[in-house]
């Protein structure tokens, strides 16, 4: 098993999830509102130099869902109450970084 690759994949998933949360905050998304894919995709590509492959994006969505932050919606992702609180805790310093941690 390639532990470096596994760690890298995990970091990519967490980073992509973090960028999605940043997109929610940047767009002023409220709890139980949907942020459309047309608003999420440009934000991901603008904020991060890494390509967001569909498998990483899907796993990041699962990660956010498992944490209770967002749920899938046909138009995009729906921010939950838990996710809204997490987004509100993101400070401006976090939003200026391109990596999650």
Would you mind describing this structure in some detail?
This protein has 101 residues and is mainly alpha-helical. It has helices at 3-26, 37-47, 54-66, 81-89, 92-96, and strands at residues 34-36, 70-73, 76-79. The protein has a three-stranded antiparallel β-sheet with strand order 1-3-2. Helix 1 packs across helix 2 (37-47), helix 1 (3-26) crosses helix 3 (54-66) and helix 1 (3-26) packs across helix 4 (81-89). The longest helix is centred in the N-terminal third of the chain and has 24 residues, at 3-26. The model is unreliable at 95-101 (pLDDT under 50).
Fold topology:
Blueprint: H1 3-26, E1 34-36, H2 37-47, H3 54-66, E2 70-73, E3 76-79, H4 81-89, H5 92-96
Antiparallel strand pairs: 1-3, 2-3
Helix pairs in contact: 1-2, 1-3, 1-4
In N-to-C order, the SSE pattern is: HEHHEEHH
What percent strand? 5-15%
**Order of strands, widest sheet:** 1-3-2
Structural class by SSE content: mainly alpha
Poorly predicted ranges (pLDDT <50, ≥5 residues)?
A: 95-101
Please bin the fraction of helical residues. Answer: 55-70%
What kind of sheet is the major sheet?
3 strands, antiparallel
The strand count comes to 3
Counted by DSSP, the helix tally is: 5
Radius of gyration (CA) equals: 13 Å
Net shape: globular
The chain-level mean pLDDT equals 81
Please give the alpha-carbon distance between the first and last residues. 24 Å
